[in-house]
Write a structure and sequence with these properties.
The complex is a heterodimer. By secondary structure, chain A is mainly alpha-helical. Chain A contains ten helices and no strands. The C terminus of chain B is likely disordered.
């Protein structure tokens, strides 16, 4: 019941025209980067466009935007207050609040990554289907991971400012491959896409680390909200 | 239910020490005091940064089952996101375990807010949102604690609010209202509490009515001071009046200036008395300066006596020995 309540809150807040506009802008940005990379050189253009424009810049910003919208620009605790004050469990409400933006971000990441591949590789490429499938599942996981992590961070800081700190840390620290990069999604998504490995983790390890750290953020956030 | 706050601090609320049993309470203070923070703690919206808040031994911020027994009207209100106000109210009712159906519409209509039912919650102003939230709170018949901020400053008729609060108080709930208006506090009745410099404390036993005293006196000139005095004595506000040297002047002491003036004018209109002059008995500036100088001198002499403390007994013993 409480999870459903959280889902309903997020759905109602995301069902605005501006959500579609933001996703459209993000997709346009990814396409623009893909065209530029293709113009730069056909070899490696897909990798650069995916790890740079799509998963490196657009996806974190989309996740940040969707979580901010689901939380109505406030902290996750305040976001669920209209129902939690009447006796619903904040833990379950926060989990429910995470579901719609996570689904939306996953679908967006999977779809946009396929579009980026099409633009950079062209339809005649032999390995397109296999790469599209690979980038799709990475997109599904990465979109959800970003939203889950941002939702957890939204329990911290005044007005949920924790998600801004996470976004900044992801951009700055997640770009490296040392121990400092380990908690941030960007480092592991880059590994999954075939880029440099953080702490020399395998791709399976990177997948585990991505999901583990993201859900750890969510767990910490929901536990904080329960107080 | 028993509500206990022990050295509870949150935001600008530095310390709250309260032990509330069933009955009516009014917290009166000015706008600068953290009334909203006190209600956030009591309603379980926030956990205290220090200290303890417990309702029947359980923390409302941590226990959804405890929050289900609370009804609150906060400083800023928000309905659950929905297409219409009626749907938002239905969501809130479902969250506290009440079957909604037509209940949401009935609830709004009973509070005189039926015209808001089909509007989008986003279209409502802050006062309308607070009105809907108050209607929701007042309709919570199983609530054991009502924590309401300015319940008489909404679009819900004051008579309805007071009647519902009376009913909830009569069935054994704790009803705590916060307000910055002495007139509202008087109308709400119950035990008065005061937040001052971020602290609130409930003393055992009867709490004196705040604001009463010589600084809350009103000087009146009327065509029949004796008649007005009798009328004021019969009033429910506990006025004390003192006839002046002339038959037309009267000095009235009440719980607060605005309450006194409001009542005096109402009684005069009802009984055809002419108010020729009415003013607050504010002491002159010279008297205030003299009082301040007196305080400063008193403080200086007290600190000097303390500083010279060890010497004074020797002098006293010598004097004793000499005699």
């Amino acid at each position: 019941m409480s999870i459903r309540g959280g889902v309903d809150i997020a759905r109602a807040r995301l069902a605005r025209r501006s959500t579609g506009v933001a996703l459209g802008l993000a997709l346009s940005f990814e396409l623009g980067v893909a065209l530029l990379e293709r113009a730069q050189g056909h070899v490696g253009a897909a990798d650069r466009a995916l790890s740079g424009g799509a998963f490196g810049v657009a996806l974190p910003l989309v996740g940040y935007f969707l979580v901010g919208r689901a939380c109505a620009g406030a902290s996750s605790k305040e976001a669920v207050a209209p129902l939690s004050r009447h006796g619903m469990d904040r833990y379950a409400l926060t989990l429910g609040l995470t579901v719609p933006p996570a689904l939306l971000a996953s679908i967006f990441a999977a779809f946009s990554s396929v579009v980026v591949l099409l633009v950079t590789r062209g339809t005649g490429d032999a390995g397109l289907l296999a790469d599209a499938l690979t980038s799709s599942w990475i997109g599904l996981v990465a979109g959800a991971a970003y939203v889950v992590a941002f939702m957890g961070a939204s329990a911290y800081g005044r007005g949920g400012r924790g998600r801004s700190w996470l976004l900044a840390a992801d951009f700055v620290l997640g770009a490296g491959s040392s121990f400092l990069a380990f908690p941030w999604p960007k480092a592991h998504i880059r590994n999954l896409l075939g880029g440099s490995a953080t702490l020399e983790l395998s791709q399976a390890g990177a997948l585990g680390a991505l999901l583990g750290t993201s859900f750890a953020f969510l767990l910490l956030g929901t536990l904080r909200n329960q107080r | 239910m028993r509500a206990v706050l022990q050295a509870a601090a949150f935001g600008a609320l530095r310390s709250a020490d309260l032990e509330l049993t069933n009955g009516r309470y009014v917290v009166l203070s000015n706008e600068r005091e953290p009334l909203g923070d006190l209600l956030a703690l009591l309603s379980g919206r926030e956990a205290p940064q220090r200290g303890r808040v417990a309702l029947d031994g359980a923390a409302p911020a941590a226990r959804p089952s405890v929050r289900r027994k609370l009804a609150a009207l906060l400083f800023e209100e928000a309905l659950p996101p929905a297409a219409t106000v009626q749907q938002g109210v239905a969501s809130a009712l479902a969250a506290r375990g009440e079957a909604s159906g037509d209940r949401a519409l009935t609830l709004l209509s009973d509070a005189g807010l039926g015209h808001l039912a089909d509007l989008a919650p986003r279209a409502l102003g802050p006062r309308e949102l607070r009105s809907v939230a108050l209607a929701l709170a007042l309709a919570h018949d199983s609530a054991e604690l009502f924590a309401l901020h300015e319940p008489l400053a909404t679009y819900v008729p004051a008579a309805l609010v007071l009647a519902r609060l009376d009913a909830h108080t009569a069935r054994g709930a704790i009803v705590l209202c916060t307000t910055t208006s002495p007139a509202d506090a008087t109308a709400l009745g119950g035990t008065w509490l005061c937040v001052e410099l971020g602290r609130v404390r409930a003393n055992a036993g009867a709490t004196p009515r705040l604001g009463a005293g010589p600084w809350q006196q009103v000087l009146i000139e009327t065509n029949d001071a004796r008649a007005l005095s009798r009328l004021l004595h019969d009033s429910a506000h506990g006025f004390v009046s003192e006839l002046g040297a002339s038959s037309q002047s009267l000095k009235v002491t009440g719980p607060a200036l605005d309450v006194t003036v409001h009542e005096v004018i109402a009684l005069a209109r009802q009984h055809g008395l002419e108010i020729q002059r009415i003013e607050a008995a504010v002491p002159p500036v010279e008297a205030l300066l003299a009082a301040r100088a007196g305080f400063a001198r008193g403080a200086y002499e007290a600190s000097r006596a303390l500083a010279l403390g060890p010497i004074a007994p020797q002098g006293a013993s010598r004097a004793d020995g000499g005699s």
